[in-house]
C-alpha cells in the first residue's frame, strides 16, 4: 500500500474506520456510554480472530469450519491457570498461543490431506471434539462454564481490568495482527499459499511441496486466533464450551466473507457490520412497529444472503467498485 | 548423445482400460521428441506418469541417471522436469510477471520467508522478466493473467516452465485451442529453444510436430508402434494406417 492508495474513497474509509476504533474510548467516555465500549472491544477481539481466519481462508483457500475452537482454547488457557491461582498474563498468552499452535499442527496435519467439503467437515469435527472435551471436564465447570474472577496480570501499574486499558490492548493487538498478516501474504511464503489456492496442481508442477506451506499457514492462523481467545477470556470473565460451538465457527466464516475474504481490511468490515447489525437491527425495527425487533434474524439473514449473492468480494469488494 | 529420460516397460490400467501398454521410450539430451497419437491413445496418461501426477502399475522411469518412477511431482520438478498443461494452468489473479516470478522462486531455495515483500524482490523480478522476454510477453508483464488472451496464456505457460530452468520440458499440447497465427508464433518460440532444451512434446498439430521434432514416437491405444525421424514416420505404413490414415479418410 502506498500513500496514493489511501487517498481513494476505499483508503479513506479504511483510515476512518481505524481512526474511529482508535478514539472509541474517548467517544464513549464523552457520551457516557460504557456499554458501547463493550461492543467495540468485542468487535476488536473477533476482528483478530477473523483476520486470522482470513489468512487461510481468503489467501490460502482453506475453509476452516472450526476456528472457534481456537478462541475456546485461548480463553481456557486464561481460565484454567486462574482457577489454580496463576494470574500472570506472561503465562496465559504464551500458553494460549502454544496450545493453539499445537492443536493446529495436529489437526491441520490430518485435515490438510483432504480438500473442499471434506476439509470443511473434518475441521468442524475436530472443533466439536474440543467442544465435547470441555463439556466433559467437570473440574472446569463442564457445560456450565468457568468463572474467571480475575484478569491476566502483566506489570504493576498496568491494569487490564480497566476497560480503556483493555480496549487499547485489543486495539494494538488487532493492528499487530493486521500488519503481520499483511506482511505474510505479500512475502514469498504468502505467494506460495496464494498460488496453491489459485492452482495447487501448477504449484506442485513448479516444485512446491504445498502441503508443508499450507500446514504452516494453518498453524500461524491458529496461533493468532488462540491469542484472540486469550483476550476473549479476559474480556468476558465467564467462559463456556458454547463459545467454541460450530455455529460460532460459522459466524466467523460469515464475517470474513461478508467483509471480503482475501483483502486486508475485509475481516474488520465484516465483524463490524455483523456485530453492529446484531446489536442495533432489533432496536431499529422496533421503531417501525412495536416488538418487530424480535424478528430481527429474518432481515439480518436476508441482508447476508444478498451480500454474498450480489457483492463479489464482500464489503471490501463494494468499496473497490466505488474506487473505479 | 546421452540419454536424459529413459522409460522402460511402462504399464498403467484404469479398471479394464489399458492406458499405457508396455511403453519403452528414450529421450536424448538436446532433442525435441514428439509423441503423437489419435485421441484416447494415452498421451496425457503417459505425461502424467512422467511428471509424477500418477504412478505406473509397473515399469521404470529414469531421469538423468536416477530412478524417478515413484518420485513426487515437486521432487521431479526439482530434478529438472518442467511441464506445461494441456488446459491452461496459470495463476489468474496474479500479473504475468508474478506468475513467472513464483516459478523462479520455486527454485531459489525454500519459501519459508515470511516478512520481505516478494513483489519488490528486484532479483526475482529481473529474472522473471528475462523469461517473459524470451516468449515475447514483456510488454504485458504487469497485466493480470486473467486479462490476456488464450494464446498469451499458452506463452506464459512456456515462460513459467522455462523459469524453473529445467533440464527437460514436458509440453502437453502447447498448441491446444490456438488459431493458425497463434500456433505459428508458438512454433517460432519453441524453435528458439530447439537444440538448447530437451523437449518432450505431445501435440495434435501436425504442422508443429513436423516443424519442431527431431524424432517422433507414435502412440496408439496405449502402445508405442514406432519411433523414428519425421521423414521416416511420414512414410511408415503402420503409422499411416493407424493414425495419419484416419485423418486422410
Termini distance of chain B? 38 Å
The number of strands of chain A is 2
Give average pLDDT of chain A, whole number.
92
Query: Which band does the percent of strand residues of chain A land in?
Result: under 5%
**How many E-type strands of chain B?**
10
Given as residue ranges, the uncertain stretches of chain B (5+ residues, pLDDT < 50) are none
Order of helical and strand elements of chain B: EEEHEEHEHHHEHEHEEHH
**Oligomeric description of these chains:** heterodimer
Notes on the structure:
The complex is a heterodimer of chains A (324) and B (249). With 324 residues, chain A is an all-alpha fold. Chain A has helices at 3-6, 9-31, 34-57, 68-83, 89-111, 116-136, 163-186, 188-206, 210-236, 246-259, 266-288, 297-310, 314-323; strands at 146-147, 238-239. The longest helix of chain B is centred in the middle third of the chain and has 14 residues, at 150-163. The N and C termini of chain B lie far apart (38 Å). The radius of gyration of chain B is 18 Å and the shape is globular. Chain B has a 6-stranded mixed sheet, sandwiched between helices. In chain B, strands 2-1-4-5 form a 4-stranded antiparallel sheet, with helices on one face. Chain B is an alpha/beta fold and 249 residues long. The chains are: A mainly alpha (324), B alpha/beta (249). At the A-B interface, α7, α8 and α9 of A face α2 and α3 of B.
Give a quick set of tags describing it.
A: mainly alpha, ABC transporter involved in vitamin B12 uptake, BtuC, 2 strands, B: 249 residues, alpha/beta, 10 strands
Sequence-ordered SSE layout with sheet pairings:
The complex is a heterodimer of chains A (324) and B (249).
Chain A: H1 3-6, H2 9-31, H3 34-57, H4 68-83, H5 89-111, H6 116-136, E1 146-147, H7 163-186, H8 188-206, H9 210-236, E2 238-239, H10 246-259, H11 266-288, H12 297-310, H13 314-323
Chain B: E1 3-14, E2 17-28, E3 32-36, H1 43-50, E4 58-63, E5 66-67, H2 73-79, E6 81-84, H3 96-105, H4 122-134, H5 150-163, E7 168-172, H6 180-193, E8 198-202, H7 206-212, E9 215-220, E10 223-228, H8 230-235, H9 237-248
Parallel strand pairs in B: 3-8, 3-9, 6-7, 7-8
Antiparallel strand pairs in B: 1-2, 1-4, 4-5, 9-10
Amino acid at each position: 500500500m502506498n500513500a496514493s492508495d489511501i487517498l481513494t474513497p476505499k483508503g479513506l474509509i479504511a483510515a476512518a474506520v481505524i481512526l474511529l476504533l482508535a478514539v472509541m474510548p474517548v467517544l464513549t467516555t464523552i457520551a457516557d456510554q460504557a456499554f458501547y465500549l463493550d461492543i467495540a472491544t468485542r468487535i476488536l477481539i473477533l476482528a483478530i480472530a477473523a483476520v486470522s481466519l482470513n489468512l487461510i481462508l481468503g489467501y490460502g483457500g482453506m475453509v476452516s469450519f472450526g476456528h472457534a475452537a481456537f478462541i475456546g482454547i485461548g480463553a481456557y488457557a486464561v481460565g484454567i491457570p486462574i482457577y489454580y491461582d496463576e494470574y500472570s498474563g506472561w503465562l496465559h498468552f504464551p500458553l494460549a498461543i502454544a496450545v493453539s499452535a499445537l492443536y493446529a499442527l495436529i489437526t491441520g496435519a490430518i485435515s490438510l490431506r483432504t480438500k473442499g467439503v471434506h476439509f470443511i467437515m473434518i475441521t468442524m469435527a475436530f472443533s466439536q471434539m474440543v467442544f465435547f472435551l470441555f463439556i466433559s471436564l467437570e473440574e472446569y465447570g463442564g457445560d456450565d462454564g468457568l468463572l474467571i474472577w480475575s484478569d491476566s496480570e502483566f506489570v504493576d501499574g498496568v491494569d487490564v481490568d480497566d476497560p480503556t486499558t483493555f480496549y487499547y490492548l485489543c486495539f494494538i493487538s488487532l493492528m499487530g495482527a493486521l500488519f503481520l498478516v499483511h506482511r505474510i501474504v505479500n512475502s514469498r511464503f504468502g505467494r506460495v499459499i496464494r498460488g496453491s489456492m489459485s492452482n495447487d496442481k501448477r504449484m506442485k508442477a513448479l516444485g512446491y511441496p504445498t502441503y508443508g506451506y499450507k500446514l504452516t499457514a494453518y498453524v500461524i492462523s491458529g496461533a493468532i486466533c488462540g491469542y484472540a481467545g486469550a483476550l476473549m477470556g479476559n474480556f468476558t470473565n465467564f467462559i463456556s464450551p458454547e463459545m467454541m460451538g460450530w455455529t460460532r465457527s460459522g459466524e466467523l466464516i460469515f464475517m470474513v466473507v461478508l467483509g471480503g475474504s482475501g483483502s486486508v481490511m475485509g475481516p474488520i468490515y465484516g465483524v463490524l457490520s455483523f456485530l453492529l447489525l446484531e446489536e442495533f437491527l432489533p432496536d431499529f425495527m422496533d421503531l417501525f412497529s412495536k416488538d418487530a425487533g424480535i424478528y430481527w434474524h429474518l432481515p439480518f439473514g436476508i441482508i447476508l444472503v444478498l451480500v454474498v449473492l450480489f457483492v463479489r468480494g464482500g464489503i471490501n469488494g463494494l468499496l473497490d467498485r466505488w474506487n473505479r | 548423445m546421452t540419454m536424459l529420460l529413459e522409460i522402460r516397460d511402462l504399464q498403467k490400467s484404469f479398471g479394464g482400460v489399458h492406458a499405457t501398454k508396455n511403453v519403452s521410450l528414450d529421450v536424448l539430451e538436446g532433442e525435441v521428441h514428439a509423441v503423437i497419437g489419435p485421441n484416447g491413445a494415452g498421451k496425457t496418461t503417459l505425461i502424467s506418469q512422467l511428471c509424477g501426477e500418477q504412478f505406473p502399475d509397473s515399469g521404470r522411469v529414469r531421469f538423468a541417471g536416477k530412478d524417478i518412477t515413484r518420485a513426487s511431482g515437486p521432487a521431479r520438478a526439482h530434478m529438472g522436469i518442467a511441464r506445461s498443461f494441456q488446459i491452461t494452468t496459470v495463476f489468474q489473479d496474479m500479473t504475468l510477471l508474478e506468475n513467472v516470478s513464483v516459478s523462479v522462486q520455486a527454485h531459489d531455495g525454500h519459501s519459508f520467508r515470511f516478512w520481505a515483500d516478494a513483489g519488490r524482490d528486484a532479483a526475482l523480478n529481473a529474472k522473471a522478466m528475462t523469461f517473459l522476454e524470451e516468449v515475447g510477453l514483456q510488454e504485458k508483464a504487469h497485466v493480470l493473467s486473467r486479462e490476456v488472451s488464450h494464446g498469451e496464456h499458452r506463452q506464459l505457460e512456456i515462460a513459467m516452465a522455462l523459469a524453473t530452468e529445467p533440464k527437460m520440458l514436458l509440453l502437453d499440447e502447447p498448441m491446444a485451442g490456438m488459431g493458425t497465427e497463434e500456433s505459428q508464433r508458438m512454433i517460432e518460440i519453441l524453435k528458439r529453444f530447439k537444440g538448447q532444451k530437451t523437449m518432450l512434446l505431445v501435440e495434435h498439430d501436425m504442422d508443429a510436430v513436423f516443424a519442431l521434432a527431431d524424432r517422433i514416437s507414435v502412440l496408439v491405444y496405449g502402445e508405442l508402434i514406432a519411433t523414428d525421424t519425421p521423414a521416416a514416420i511420414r512414410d511408415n505404413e503402420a503409422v499411416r494406417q493407424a493414425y495419419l490414415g484416419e485423418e486422410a479418410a
